[in-house]
Write a structure and sequence with these properties.
The longest helix has 18 residues. The N terminus is likely disordered. The chain is built from ten helices and ten strands. It has a domain of 136 residues: Rossmann fold (3-Layer(aba) Sandwich). The strands form two sheets. Strands 6-7-8-3-9-10 form a six-stranded mixed β-sheet, sandwiched between helices. A four-stranded antiparallel β-sheet has the order 2-1-4-5, with helices on one face. The N and C termini lie far apart (56 Å). 34% of the residues lie in helices and 23% in strands. The chain is globular and about 60 Å long. It is of the alpha/beta class. Bound molecules: adenosine-5'-triphosphate and magnesium ion (MG). Magnesium ion binds next to helix 1.
Length: 265
């Protein structure tokens, strides 16, 4: 391991979401979201497609502004301009959001270069350290189009690590991956938290990842929190809607698609 790599930050922050509402063009997407993520925990948010998970995560990252309510990181309001200077947070986007015209190296070096986080040799150490953690050293000079889906996900995580995050947000980190690569990414998320105590929020459809790594979980549906609790509370949920989401029964004799309209009132 290179010695000049900046040590991971010792201070870690929790997240408090208070009475968060968000509408787009008058259409409500988040409705009265209240939750607390404790410093250093892995908090998993599950819920159906379109329920507002990515929008919620973008509020935590300061990429969307609430219609009302607020999001605090530690005691700092995300909406305050100074907060992003005080706290290193990173969002691993659902689709990776790598720059296709740049090599893996330049994708990772972009943030530290723009924020002048060190000399070029120092930045190189940080980038190579992050690539090493994700077993990506050989991809350093490749372009995103040359990478598999799993490699792109790992590059996106490596790019987040280069910022030495105190808060790490993952949007669907295992979607479109084979089961072994999903397990690998899940192990990486857990290992990073264990090594660095980074507060971690994971949005996922994947109950395997949720049950494996969550300290606590929330289930969001139609823009509202439907349930929040420990993993054990979600393994045999009393709420039939959550139970069906987590353990859907495939019924070929009475297929669901014939009832989609009934369920969408
Ligand atoms: N910038 C935007 N402008 C208008 N509507 C938006 C915007 N971003 C999200 N929405 C809407 O907000 C709702 C929630 O979207 P979101 O992306 O958070 O869903 P999701 O839970 O992440 O779904 P998935 O599991 O498919 O990723 C959707 O109806 C979406 O169309
Ligand atoms: Mg999403």
């Amino acid at each position: 391991m290179a010695e000049s790599v900046t040590p991971f930050p010792s201070k870690t922050f929790g997240v408090t979401i208070e009475k968060l509402y968000k509408s787009f063009d008058g259409v409500p997407v988040l409705k009265d979201i209240n939750l607390e993520v404790k410093p250093g925990e892995i908090f998993v948010i599950m819920g159906p497609s379109g329920s507002g998970k990515s929008v919620l995560l973008k509020h935590v990252a300061g990429l969307e502004q609430p219609t009302s309510g607020r999001v605090l990181i530690g005691s700092y309001d995300v909406a305050d301009p100074g907060t992003r200077q005080r706290i290193h947070l990173a969002l691993v986007f659902q689709a990776g959001a790598l720059f296709n015209s740049m090599t893996v190296y330049d994708n990772l070096a972009l943030y530290p270069r723009e924020h002048r986080l060190g000399t070029e040799p120092h930045i190189r150490d940080r980038v190579m350290h992050a690539l090493q953690i994700l077993s990506l050293e050989k991809a350093v000079n490749q372009f995103p189009a040359e990478l598999s889906g799993g490699m792109k996900k790992r590059v996106a995580i490596a790019r987040a690590l280069v910022t030495d995050p105190q808060l790490l947000l993952y949007d669907e980190p295992t979607s479109e991956l084979d089961p072994v690569m999903s397990a690998t990414i899940t192990e990486i998320i857990a290992a990073l938290r264990d090594q660095t105590a980074v507060t971690t929020v994971v949005v996922t459809h994947d109950r395997g990842i949720a049950f494996a790594i969550a300290d606590r979980m929330a289930f969001i549906m139609d823009g509202r929190i439907r349930a929040i609790g420990q993993v054990a509370d979600f393994k045999n949920p009393a709420d039939g809607v959550i139970a069906n989401f987590l353990n859907p029964v495939i019924d070929l004799k009475n297929p669901r698609f014939k009832h989609l309209e009934d369920n969408h009132e």
